[in-house]
Amino acid sequence: MGAAKKKSGGKAGGKRRIAILGGGNLGQALARGWVAAGVVAKTDLEVVRRRPERLAELASAGIGTGADGRRAAKNADVIVLAVQPQQIQALLDDVGPVLDPKRHRVISVVSGVSIAVLSAQLRGVPVVRAMPNTAVSIRESMTCLSAPPTHADALDEARVLFDALGKTLVIQEDMMIPATALCACGTAFFLRAVRAASQGGIEIGFHPEEAMLLAAQTARGAASLLQREGSHPEAEIDRVTTPRGCTIAGLNEMEHQGFSSALIKGILLSAEKAAALYGGK
User: Fold this and answer.
1) pTM for the complete prediction?
2) What does the longest C-alpha to C-alpha distance in the chain come to?
3) Closest by CA position to 26, among listed 95, 74, 84
4) 145-196, pLDDT tens digit by residue?
């Protein structure tokens, strides 16, 4: 298991053409992030979706869009599979025959679909699994990566790409489902916590926009303390709690109401659901 990597600055790696097959929220976020990071030129990137009119915002920004996945994959160097799990079989049937193991590399961000399943239909094309989150669009994602030893070069290239979008961690493939729950689903969990904090702020007298600013920036600062100082959450909590103080009173009430337990149970349930997303063999 590797260590998390910090964001890379400037342009990462050499010139490459990337085809993102699947233009949903994550596919579009990847496109925006890589262009913003200078990893790929707009003219060397294409996002494919069955209804390309839904990619109008990307197209207006000068990013290539289309509906022909086979053509886009054939013309690319790196193919990013970004469809829903139930759509992966049709996509593999379509693009698999045009991929060349000597030229192409595949990165899959499809939840629950193993490298073995992908490799069985990609005729020796190097495959890397990646689990980022939608913060790739602002280069603040936490992305987990996995690949077999035989695909080490493809893994190195994937790290270059995703290091430009936040932090990366190389893990064993059997940890990709847990990574889905903690990193991908986790974005929503932490956003819900920020929303709840802002609602509490409104209850105690702040206007909604003020409460949201205060909650979001406080959450950002708390996370930054852990990353920059390398400390444990409880150590930082101890710094802001005093005997019979207001902080410990609030924390204890949250625990009485099941705050930590609810979050842990939510992550566990999301992992169970993620494991069942792909019904293929």
Assistant:
1) 0.90
2) 68
3) 84
4) 999 999 999 999 999 999 999 999 999 999 999 999 999 999 999 999 999 9
Backbone angles phi, psi at 50, to 5 degrees: -60, -30
Contact 18, 78 (CB under 8 A): yes
- Which superfamily, per CATH, for 180-275? ProC C-terminal domain-like (1.10.3730.10)
Burial of 194: CB neighbours in 10 Å, binned 0-12, 13-18, 19+: middle
> What would the CATH number be for the domain defined by 18-171?
3.40.50.720
The b-or-e profile of 9-28 (16+ CB within 10 A means b, else e) is eeebeeebbbbbbbbeebbb
- Distance, CA of 179 to CA of 235 (rounded, Å): 25
Residue 123: pLDDT band (50, 70, 90) is confident
